[in-house]
Design brief:
The complex is a heterodimer of chains A (about 525) and B (about 240). With about 525 residues, chain A is α/β, with parallel strands linked by helices. Chain A folds into two domains: about 375 residues, D-Lysine 5,6-aminomutase alpha subunit (TIM Barrel); about 90 residues, no CATH class. Chain A contains 20 helices and eleven strands. The two termini of chain A are about 40 Å apart. Chain B is α/β, with parallel strands linked by helices. Chain B has two domains: about 80 residues, D-lysine 5,6-aminomutase beta subunit KamE, N-terminal domain (Defensin A-like), CATH 3.30.30.60; about 160 residues, Cobalamin-binding domain (Rossmann fold, 3-Layer(aba) Sandwich), CATH 3.40.50. Chain B is built from seven helices and eight strands. In chain B, strand 6, helix 5 and strand 7 form a beta-alpha-beta unit. In chain B, helix 2 packs parallel to helix 7. The chains are: A alpha/beta (about 525), B alpha/beta (about 240). Chains A and B meet through helix 7 and helix 16 of A and strand 1 of B.
């Protein structure tokens, strides 16, 4: 399967080398900066939860209170206060919120004690994540593992209880992964809402309590079905690392977690996004979470036939960043989709070429394949067939996470029957074509092989160009998705800080050290890109 | 003339259905579905499929016949009748009868950050297999993008001496689009320049009657192609030019 198409190996090596250089350049920037949400995630990792009397999360209250101290890291002054008062982290946060306690610079003589205690607390925080990961592995062993490709569907009622009911119905119909779509514009909130929620716009708030409620529902239905049902949410937007922390603690299994999506599609500042994705991915890596990247979105704004190679380039870049954040190949669910206009002659031929190319470039990675949206018609009967050809492409090219298309995609959020029909469509195609790819070979030098090599060559050109001008400049020029962004512009730039020489945050080391390794179902190692050890 | 749905024999009135009832599947489920359709006034109901999609829900696929008919001539409304032309004919029409380039400015206005609608109609690459307005050699088309304040759009239209203004409104939560569209009309009228432009609006919740009601010259709803907009623009601008 992995050599089904004869790809130019030299180009593959050049693509990885260029992506690696691009990521190294940005990694340098990442290590020289921190952000307010990075420091808030640090506080969450210490176990701080809850909100003040006007619903502002305590971690926001503390980070805002200590804003001047953030360039050296929140941990040292925070733990110093714990040392001096004998209070727990939560008590300190409440004290700061109540105005009874204040964080201050730590004088030289107390530094050693504060740092030593902080290291212990970081190790304890990481141990909590490890325990959740072990629990997942136990449950997968007890309930049983789903057969790949995973059938991934979305719920989005706004009400977590109704979401849970719909998710259970979807699991019973055959879904393996449930993603809870977030309410409109949560990605632009500079805090994470708190508690259970029953109202949202086009989705449901990502809160730690909602995570917990949905987790419980999926564990129940998983036991009933004898299949572990995975839960997915979004570690994206202005609070990437904080949501990753919540997901790690509440046993989410997948997270949308892209290194560039927020920059391009949410106009979040690029410097901030790169810094934020790093800690969020270190946490996901430690928690055994599979990340999903968002390249599929590129071709909703740019044309798939002409700009398909930008997805290939971006997958290489996302891979390079993911490896630098300690994610293993089995955790890196690179996203892709090449939705070519169905009126294009041989549309499915090119669709297969693009999907097979990505499959071969990233062996062992749980690739996420995204369904048609842009060209879905109001004619739902026609739409159902377009989805069927997409499912065919997915099974034929060995995709592992299939977000299913809905026949009513162009019309409304899925009706109960739409989700059911969509799952039936996918299951029929998967089971009827499961071994087809093993039985046929691609025509050497045919349209598919040529298209794949052509896409690869264009991706290499783009990656080497981006390497030469730097990723910041490339984003400024609109290299991806035809969207242009300003390095100093966008949301959240005011929360980016250049770190001081005495920056201290022991979580970065703790998340990397002594980590568990390997996929729950056994290792499925893939890519071999070299990784430079980074770290704050 | 009164017409009815046509299945396989003229006037047979056959309609197909699919729906879900919140009931567990049981042997009587098919009759529940059948009687439900009969209550709606259909006869000769046939349940083609009836099955559990969950322990709590049953899906039906069914057919029924209706005696109800409709006369299309009795359906009245404010519809935009555009004679659809092809790309070459549109360019030729502008060149021959306007004698200069047709100038058009477009934007998604105020808080609306979505460029998908205006891009589909204006961008070079176009949509659904036909070119956007920027590609037309006889048009001077400027796509200003999204989140453009009304005042800025008007200033640009005046500076460029535009023949037409295209407005896209995608976001419709709490009817914010109505507010924005009204704001633009009010501004044009306050400045006394409303009549200088062919004013067109498009979006998922727009239709021609609604656009007219707001004071626009035409409204285009979902699935509109650049060709339809270009045809209307060329014909309307030429018509006004020749009347003037």
């Amino acid at each position: 399967m992995n050599d089904a198409l004869r790809l130019n190996g030299d180009l593959v090596d050049r693509a990885r080398a260029a992506a690696s250089a691009i990521a190294d350049d940005i990694q340098q920037h990442i290590e020289e900066h921190t952000t307010d949400t990075t420091e808030r995630a640090t506080l969450r990792l210490l176990g701080i939860a809850g909100v003040n009397e006007i619903d502002v999360p305590l971690v926001n209250v503390v980070a805002e209170h200590a804003r001047d101290l953030l360039p050296s890291g929140i941990m040292r002054p925070f733990v110093d206060l714990m040392n001096r008062t004998g209070k727990t982290a939560q008590e300190i946060a409440e004290g700061v919120a109540g105005g009874d306690l204040a964080l201050t610079e730590v004088p030289e003589e107390r530094r050693g004690a504060a740092e030593a205690r902080a290291v212990e607390l970081a190790n304890e925080g990481v141990a909590r994540i490890d325990a959740v990961r072990m629990r997942r592995e136990q449950l997968v062993a007890i309930t049983g593992e789903a057969l790949k490709p995973y059938v991934y569907v979305i719920v989005a009622t706004g009400n977590i209880y109704e979401d849970a009911a719909q998710a259970k119905a979807a699991a019973r119909a055959g879904a393996d992964v449930i993603a809870v779509i977030r309410t409109t514009a949560q990605s632009l909130l500079d805090y994470v809402p708190y508690g259970e929620t029953t109202e949202g716009f086009g989705g449901t708030y990502a809160t730690q309590e909602n995570f917990r409620l949905m987790r419980t529902a999926l564990d129940e239905v998983g036991m009933e079905l004898g299949r572990y049902i995975r839960l997915c949410n979004y570690a994206s937007g202005l609070c990437m690392p904080e949501i990753a922390t919540m997901g790690a603690l509440e046993r989410l299994d997948m997270m949308l977690n892209d290194s560039m999506y927020g920059i391009i599609f949410r106009n979040i500042n690029m410097q901030r996004t790169f810094v934020d994705q790093y800690l969020s991915r270190l946490i996901n890596a430690r928690a055994g979470i599979i990340i999903n990247t968002g390249e599929d979105n590129y071709l909703t704004t740019a044309d798939a036939f002409e700009k398909g190679y930008t997805v290939v380039s971006s997958d290489f870049i996302n891979e390079a960043f993911a490896l630098r954040a300690n994610l293993e190949p089995w955790q890196i669910g690179l996203g892709h989709a090449f939705e070519i206009n169905p009126q294009t002659p041989d549309q499915v031929v090119y669709q297969i070429a693009d999907a097979q190319l990505i499959r071969q470039l990233f062996p062992g990675y749980p690739l996420k394949y995204m369904p048609p949206t842009k060209y879905m018609p109001g004619d739902i009967f026609q739409g159902h067939i377009i989805d069927g050809m997409f499912n065919f492409t997915g099974i034929f090219t060995g995709q592992e996470i299939m977000l299913l298309g809905m026949l009513t995609e162009a019309l409304h959020t899925p009706l109960l029957q739409d989700r059911y029909l969509s799952i039936k469509n996918a299951k029929y195609v998967f089971e009827s074509c499961r071994d087809l790819a093993d039985e046929v070979i691609y025509k050497p030098g045919g349209k598919i092989e040529q298209r794949a090599n052509d896409q690869l060559a264009k991706a290499v050109d783009q990656l080497e160009h981006v390497r030469d001008i730097s990723l910041f400049k490339a984003l400024e020029d609109g290299e991806f998705a035809d969207v242009k962004r300003d390095p100093q512009g966008g949301r959240g730039f005011e929360g980016v800080f250049r770190v001081t020489p005495s920056y201290f945050n022991p979580f970065f080391a703790a998340l990397r050290e002594g980590r568990m390794s390997g996929a729950p179902e056994g290792p499925a190692p893939g890519g071999t890109a070299s990784v430079k050890e980074g770290g704050h | 003339m009164v017409i009815r749905p046509y299945g396989d024999t003229k006037d047979d009135g056959i309609i197909q259905f699919s729906f879900t009832l919140p009931m567990p599947y049981s042997v009587k489920a098919a009759d529940v579905g059948k009687q439900f359709l009969e209550k709606l006034g259909f006869h000769t109901v046939a349940i083609a499929e009836c099955k559990a999609i969950d322990p709590e829900y049953t899906l039906f696929v069914a057919y029924g016949r209706t005696d109800v008919g409709i006369d299309p001539d009795e359906v009245k409304g404010d519809y935009l009748e555009v004679e659809e032309m092809d790309y070459y004919a549109i360019n030729a029409l502008i060149k021959e009868r306007l004698g200069r380039k047709l100038r058009v400015v477009g934007a998604a206005i105020e808080s609306d950050a979505h460029t998908v609608g205006i891009d589909a109609i204006m961008n070079m690459k176009g949509f659904a297999g036909n070119y956007g307005l920027e590609r037309y050699p006889e048009m001077d088309a400027l796509n200003m993008g999204s989140q453009i304040p009304c005042a800025q759009l008007l200033r640009t239209a005046l500076e460029r001496n535009a023949d037409a203004i295209l407005v896209s409104q995608i976001v419709t939560q709490k009817n914010i689009h109505v507010q924005h569209l009204t704001q633009l009309i009010e501004l044009l009228e306050a400045e006394g320049v409303r009549e200088r432009f062919v004013l067109i609006v498009g979006g998922p919740r727009i239709n021609n009657a609604f656009a007219k009601e707001l004071g626009y010259d035409a409204g285009f709803g979902p699935r509109t192609t650049p060709l339809e907009v270009a045809s209307f623009l060329a014909q309307e601008v030429v018509r006004r030019h020749e009347e003037a």
